[in-house]
Structure formats: structure tokens, C-alpha cells
């Protein structure tokens, strides 16, 4: 257990230590309200429909842009196959981070994080005292822009973790650039239009969150990550290759994603929803946990330049489709989730209410 210093409102308990204690029940702090539990109505993913699978082997083919665009409009999620990132690198990335979470507690604690940046080894989001917590630990890292890159926050163990994570981040950020081109073309805009709205390729922010969900003795009572939409631009997730857990909200039901081997799961974040005036949609998702197996995933977040006010792109605004959102920087926007923790789509919906009110 870590003290309540470093900006946290109360002592931080590592979920991995709770899991390894052998307790048959979970602490009350992790028990979700009944309506939010995995077995609640609509939680089972009663539809056999799965998120779209998009083949990226021909990124310049107009059919690829159409497939990406349709997935972003309809689901907000898709699985990317033939994406150009070597499968061997995916396996190495999973392997080094599994190795980190197997390190002794005192090694991991050297990198304990704080709410100031969230960078480092963490076990909670949000700083509300007494909040119901999620059953998961994580490691959060800034990759770009350069002034946020802090080598002291990058673990030294396992020995190849830094090199592997840097290579992985470069490759996946390059994939994000290709996806931004496809998304932009799918809007009927120029190939670089969406990237320009992000502040250009050099202005985009890149960060990585490695999620570790330990075994849970009462998985029916809690979640690894509560329902939320991602506050940033786009997320590229390397899911666990052995254990399912990601669920996407679809027409009021929760659909469990069945990952395709060596694929990435890509989803639209709130910032792209704002920029496209809700043509592309961020969608609520959550993570369930498992009594028999631990689970690990690696999420790369591709975000707009953080000090750039973002609002719907003018070409996507018309008298028939007025602007839905007021301008706000990503720096301002992400303060909400850092204070409150994951809360469905309440943040982006509150922006919409502000813009509608201003238009009246």
C-alpha cells in the first residue's frame, strides 16, 4: 500500500496485491452499483454481431478509406488487420510488460504515479475521495511531444522494456497517421485535413497505457475499467491474445469483442467526434475481469496538440447540421476525467449541451 501523498486523496492499494492475497471476496471499494455490474440487463452482448474488421493491406485504395469511414460512423470501433506492424513486435510488447507486472512490488513502486500527470505505475483514475474503484493496475507513459518525454518514468526492468516500447510506439504512431488519412478521405476531405486539425503530424500527442487486470475472486461484482468513451483522438489497442474482456456498447447492449489474432482494435475518441461534428462517433466501452486468468492489454492514444482549441471543422458545419460543440483545448478537456474518473459519455455530452445553449 502506498500513502495518500503525491496528490491522491487516500492510500493507494495495488489491485495485484489484493488478487495475490488469496482473499475470497473483494473489498467494498470495488463493488459496482448493481446496474453497472457485468450481469446487469443488456450486459451479456446478446447480439452475435461483432465489430467490423478492416483490411489495411492497401491503404491507398479508396475502398480502404470507405471501410474505415463506415466503421467510424456506424460502430466507432473496428479491428485492423494487415496493418503493417510486425506480429513479432506485438508479442515482444506484450512480453516485456507482462515481465514488468511480475517484478517485485518494491521495483514497481519506484515508478508510482500521481494525479499531476498520471505518468508511471497506477491503480486508480480520478481523485474523488471514497470513489468506487476499478479492478486493475496500469502503467501510463508520455511518448510525444518531446517536452513531456521523461526517461526517468520508463522502467528499467525487464531490460528490453524501454527499447521495445519505444519501437512499438513509433510503429503504432505511424499506423495512426495512415488511419488519419483514411478517416479524412472518408469524410470527403483532403488526405491531410484531419491531421492538420490535430496540429499536424509533429503536433500530435502520443501516450501509452498498459492495463493489467489481475484475477478477481468475484468478477460478477466489479469491472476492470468502468464504462467510458476515450477523451483523446484515437486509440489503438493491442488486446490480450488469450483472454477476452473488452465490451462495446451497441444499441443498449454490451458486445464482447473477440480479438482477431495479430489485429489492433481501433476506436474513435471524443476529440475526433468533436472535430467531425459527430460524423464519427466515440462509443462507450468497458472491461470485465476474470476469476481464472489475468489479462493485459496495451493502448496507444493518438491525441491532438493539447493547447489547440478544437471545434467542428467548418466544412462539416451547415445550416442543416449546425456545430454541436464549443471550442475547447485537449488540456482543458482531459482535466475532467482526471478529476472524476471514467463516466460514460457524460463529458462530451456536456460539451454538446453548452454549444446548443450558446446557439439559441
TrEMBL record:
<dbReference type="InterPro" id="IPR026992">
    <property type="entry name" value="DIOX_N"/>
</dbReference>
<keyword id="KW-0611">Plant defense</keyword>
<keyword id="KW-0408">Iron</keyword>
<feature type="region of interest" description="Disordered">
    <location>
        <begin position="18"/>
        <end position="62"/>
    </location>
</feature>
<comment type="similarity">
    <text>Belongs to the iron/ascorbate-dependent oxidoreductase family.</text>
</comment>
<protein>
    <recommendedName>
        <fullName>Fe2OG dioxygenase domain-containing protein</fullName>
    </recommendedName>
</protein>
<keyword id="KW-1184">Jasmonic acid signaling pathway</keyword>
<dbReference type="Pfam" id="PF14226">
    <property type="entry name" value="DIOX_N"/>
</dbReference>
<dbReference type="GO" id="GO:2000022">
    <property type="term" value="P:regulation of jasmonic acid mediated signaling pathway"/>
</dbReference>
<dbReference type="GO" id="GO:0006952">
    <property type="term" value="P:defense response"/>
</dbReference>
<keyword id="KW-0479">Metal-binding</keyword>
<dbReference type="InterPro" id="IPR027443">
    <property type="entry name" value="IPNS-like_sf"/>
</dbReference>
<dbReference type="Pfam" id="PF03171">
    <property type="entry name" value="2OG-FeII_Oxy"/>
</dbReference>
<dbReference type="GO" id="GO:0120091">
    <property type="term" value="F:jasmonic acid hydrolase"/>
</dbReference>
<dbReference type="InterPro" id="IPR005123">
    <property type="entry name" value="Oxoglu/Fe-dep_dioxygenase_dom"/>
</dbReference>
<dbReference type="InterPro" id="IPR050295">
    <property type="entry name" value="Plant_2OG-oxidoreductases"/>
</dbReference>
<dbReference type="GO" id="GO:0046872">
    <property type="term" value="F:metal ion binding"/>
</dbReference>
<dbReference type="GO" id="GO:0016491">
    <property type="term" value="F:oxidoreductase activity"/>
</dbReference>
<keyword id="KW-0560">Oxidoreductase</keyword>
<dbReference type="GO" id="GO:1900150">
    <property type="term" value="P:regulation of defense response to fungus"/>
</dbReference>
<dbReference type="InterPro" id="IPR044861">
    <property type="entry name" value="IPNS-like_FE2OG_OXY"/>
</dbReference>
<feature type="domain" description="Fe2OG dioxygenase">
    <location>
        <begin position="200"/>
        <end position="304"/>
    </location>
</feature>
<dbReference type="GO" id="GO:1900366">
    <property type="term" value="P:negative regulation of defense response to insect"/>
</dbReference>
